[in-house]
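re: that chain from earlier
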Amino acid sequence: MTRWVACLLVMVAQVAMAQDANHGAIVAKRWCSNCHIVEQNPPEGRADGLPSFVNIANRPGTTKQSLRSLMTTEHGRMPNFSLTAAEEDDLAAYILTLQK
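^ sequence. v structure.
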């Protein structure tokens, strides 16, 4: 019985993480896709010099914390979005799904 409960808890946690990443994909398409390529396999690319989310995800040392720092620190041409903490977490979860 204990193993069954543990299995169930792991499955629930995985579903919750998937939902966060799915919402993060929606946030990425809404707020980030004007400047970044946000898809794993985009239909076309841009030539504006900004990193794709796949490139960001695969940088050495990319973690949820480093992604949140990028989202909240003013840098370059990135506008100052007012994302909620949950949206930042969801967006970071989505970007981390793009790691190879």
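The chain has one domain: 2-97.
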